[in-house]
Design a protein that fits this description.
It is a single chain. The strands form two sheets. Strands 1, 3, 5, 7, 8, 10, 12, 14 and 15 form a nine-stranded parallel sheet that branches. Strands 2-4-6-9-11-13 form a six-stranded parallel sheet, with no helix packed on it. About 0% of the residues lie in helices and about 50% in strands. The model has no long low-confidence stretch (mean pLDDT about 90). The chain is mainly β and about 170 residues long.
Length: about 170
């Protein structure tokens, strides 16, 4: 659990277990959270604060790994929408769910941009189950020479992509 403001710059890696952010500035702005979870391991990032002044950090999940982002709150009970930076996903599944202390409301995760970054033809699966996922735009910004598929799975029904979905290499 990270419960204080941090000022480091760089990468935070989750390779097993749950990293709980109990402070909205526990990860500095423009920093990176990288999931390197594979095989039988599980890994989650829980946003367990009330969202006020939360920093926008980026999340990366590379090929062969997977991760879960949990939308929680410090006080529990009512779910809120947490805003992160950008998602960089490469041939992976990202699950979005409500934290165990959320009993009502509209828990959600909002990301600015989704980059489908795999270095080969691949599918990225978004799996929002008990929390919604909102994305500003989705695009292929890196490794543009490969066909990529964005698949929506899961059971949450309020998911959105509010901007364009495109291949930046061919626009």
């Amino acid at each position: 659990t990270l419960s204080a403001t941090n000022a480091y710059r760089g990468e935070t890696e989750i390779n097993q277990g749950t990293l709980t952010l109990a402070n909205p500035t526990a990860i500095p702005p423009a920093s990176l959270v990288r999931f390197s979870v594979n095989g039988s391991k599980t890994g989650a990032l829980e946003l367990a604060h009330d969202g006020a002044n939360e920093t926008r950090f980026n999340v990366t999940i590379g090929t062969g790994n997977y991760g879960t982002i949990l939308s929680g709150s410090a006080s529990g009970g009512v779910g809120i929408d947490h805003v992160i930076g950008d998602l960089n996903l490469s041939y992976v599944t990202l699950t979005v769910a409500r934290a165990s202390n959320i009993l009502s409301g509209s828990p959600a995760i909002t990301a600015g941009t989704l980059d489908l970054s795999s270095g080969s033809s691949s599918t990225v699966t978004l799996n929002p189950t008990s929390a919604d996922l909102h994305i500003g735009r989705a695009a292929i910004f890196s490794n543009t020479g490969f066909a990529k598929t964005l698949r929506l799975d899961g059971s949450a029904t309020g998911n959105t992509i509010t901007g364009a979905v495109y291949n930046s290499g061919n626009t």
